[in-house]
Amino acid sequence: MNRMRVSFAAAGIAATAALGAAVWPHAHDAGAVLAAQDDPAELADLRIKSALRNNPTLISENIEAALAANDADLAASFVALARDRNIALGDELTKRVDDAVAEQGSTVHFAKGFATGFVTGDADDVASLSGTVAGDLFVFGDIRDVVREGKHLAMGEDTDHLVLGLAAAGLAVTAATYVSVGGAAPLRAGLTLVKDTRKAGRLSEGLISWAGRSARDVVDEPALRQAVSSGSVLRPAETAGAIRAAFRAEKAGALVRAAKDVGRIGEAAGVRAARDTLKVAENPKELARAARIAEAKGGQTRAILKLLGRGALLLAVGTFNLTMWLFGALLTLFGFLASIKATTERATAWWLRRSKARRLRQQATADMATQAALAGAAVQG
Known about the structure:
Distance between the termini: 49 Å
Structural class: mainly alpha
Oligomer: single chain
Number of helices: 18
Strand content: under 5%
């Protein structure tokens, strides 16, 4: 019976050790994620590490897909990520990426993109964004958007209040950009990126909802109607002044901060990284976290967003679930230690009982020998 109790305790040690070996990796990852929850760049690193552990060929597969989609910028982002992770890529694949980047960075390509951005306001790379920002800096683009949406508003038609508010804010910021000799340029670029992403239908639903509410507050609609009724892109200075008068700067704080974060992403990681962020971020807090990732990871940002999506900007697993892994590991450790304690106590008790029984047998044998000797002596006497 005693041996059986010791065996059960020893089996408990083996079972909790096996359970601990299974739980520990999850608990370790959960602890690391919880420790990094306020550091989006570190959190992204942990998730990328996990993704690559599950699929070591993930980066090369995504490079091939990016090249097939004629997205050299994304392919280059994955190459940067591979270098940071010390993942070897074939020379042939690296050369293909370099050639694609060189082709898209050519003078002809840049000129074409600049012209497209200037005329249409559609920004998809550095060249087209340069053209779009140039158009907005010359107030052409923002006046065009305000006049168009303002006339919809005046006529009671469907109005994109977000584009309207961003364009009005852009006119005010453009003046500040000139005054500060480019000091407000990141904000100017951020406003342009958000506005054009919205026009292209690539803004996330969460940002559309939030920014739309914020944009409604920044425009004095009666003043805007009056400005638009006599405004024209052919009289940019006069029209811009009238529209700026309808802009409520005191109401634009949240919208401006969000646009500034988008501008930070564009500066640190590129236009397309900013556009990718605007597709997945659902609120200003996530934009701010994306800006921190971009400033820490630079050219790797697009690859990180491609692999993790919105998960790069927030805890993909709830804090409760992560805490439960840690709690499970603690329970397993407690069970392991309790099993060791029980095994030690039972083994010690078994050994003591066995030793005591042996001593009693030895004492009994000695007593019997003594009695036999005394009996023999009595017979002889």
